[in-house]
Write a structure and sequence with these properties.
The chain has 302 residues and is α/β, with parallel strands linked by helices. It has helices at residues 10-16, 24-36, 59-66, 81-90, 103-110, 114-127, 153-164, 181-195, 211-220, 248-257, 266-279, 288-292; strands spanning 5-8, 41-46, 73-77, 94-100, 134-140, 169-174, 199-204, 225-228. The chain is 42% helix and 15% strand. An eight-stranded parallel beta barrel has the order 1-2-3-4-5-6-7-8, surrounded by ten helices. It is globular, with a radius of gyration of 18 Å. The termini are close together. The structure holds coenzyme A and zinc ion (ZN).
């Protein structure tokens, strides 16, 4: 049993913002290595127009490959009904929809208002049928936005409540790395009061170095599902100034050192990082734990 669940979003959030394209075969090898390290959930890509984000053009093929890995939950992002249909057709187990609480980001990212985006997700939830994929509504820019500035908590709450009506789970995302731990505790607690256990995931970016602090704050607030990206890759191409996600290697180290089981083997995770480095060698990647190594006598959570 795992105490915390980490979803690796590097193949999606990471590669969508990378300057260098990762070849399809290298993506497959990387995803296989990530799963072998113990990641049980991987967001492998997005179903958006290939012209918009060429790095995601091969997502259907990547989903097909990821589905061959036993026990892996294959997640894909979709921005609309067309993306949902493509993701479902490819066989994604879970489909995540970005629903921005910031109007300006919503228009920049999906060319829809937040309300129009909620309607897209509602339609997808209605279309999926009994055996369809899991659906997650991710309230993005929930902690602030580089385009709009402050994002009222009431806007986040309203969207979370609307999405909880038909989504299996709702996540709060700090798309541009504005969140701080006090804010994280307050907002997760507020949203949980309204939607209870439908509130699942936390998605943090490390733009101002607070990724781990925010993840810990969310953990203390009862959150047990976290997105993270290997090497700290990541960022939304349609949110100026967005940079990498909370770093998987450091997040796993933090939880394991605290005695909380992630189910992830750090040495195998470092082996997967080697594949990432080899696949896009010019892309800067980050992470304290892989550079410093594990402390002498370190023991993973038992
Ligand atoms: N996958 C592939 N093609 C798609 C698509 C999808 N999910 N959604 C729309 N298209 C195609 C349409 O068929 C149409 O093609 P055509 O020009 O050949 O007729 C074209 O794209 C434009 O469609 P339209 O519905 O007008 O979309 P848009 O141009 O208003 O863009 C989104 C809206 C949502 C598709 C786009 O803004 C988007 O993909 N945003 C997500 C960006 C992202 O990935 N951000 C980072 C992750 S949060
Ligand atoms: Zn993100």
């Amino acid at each position: 049993m795992r105490d915390v669940h980490i979803c690796e979003v590097g193949p999606r959030d990471g590669l969508q913002n990378a300057k260098h394209l990762m070849p399809t075969e290298a993506k497959k090898r990387w995803i296989t290595a990530l799963a072998a390290a113990g990641l049980e959930e991987i967001e492998v890509g997005s179903f958006v127009p290939p012209k918009l984000i060429p790095a995601m053009a091969d997502t259907a093929e990547i989903v097909t490959h990821a589905r061959t890995i036993a026990g892996l939950k294959v997640v894909a992002l979709a921005p609309n009904v067309k993306g949902f249909e493509r993701a479902r057709g490819a066989g994604a187990h879970k489909i995540t929809f970005p629903v921005s609480a910031s109007r300006k980001h919503s228009e920049s990212n999906v060319r829809m208002t937040p309300e129009q985006m909620v309607e897209q997700v509602r339609q997808c939830a209605a279309l999926r049928g009994k055996d369809g994929p899991e659906i997650e509504g991710a309230v993005s820019t929930a902690f602030g936005c580089t385009l709009q500035g402050a994002v009222p908590e009431a806007d986040v709450l309203r969207l979370a409540v609307a999405l909880a009506e038909f989504c299996d789970g709702v996540a709060l995302a700090d798309t541009v790395g504005y969140a701080n731990p006090a804010q994280v505790k307050r907002l997760f607690s507020l949203v949980r009061k309204e939607i209870g256990s439908k509130l699942e995931g936390a998605h943090f970016h490390n733009t101002r170095g607070l990724g781990l602090a925010n993840a810990l704050a969310a953990y203390e607030e009862g959150v047990r599902a976290f997105d993270a990206s290997m090497g700290g890759l990541g960022g939304c191409p349609f949110a100026p100034g967005a940079s990498g996600n909370v770093i998987t290697e450091d997040l796993v180290f933090m939880f394991e050192a605290m005695g909380l089981k992630t189910g992830i083997d750090l040495q195998k995770l470092f082996a997967a990082r080697k594949l990432l480095e080899q696949a896009i060698p010019e892309e800067p990647i980050y992470g304290h734990t892989p550079l410093a190594g594990l402390p002498k006598g370190f023991r993973a959570a038992a």
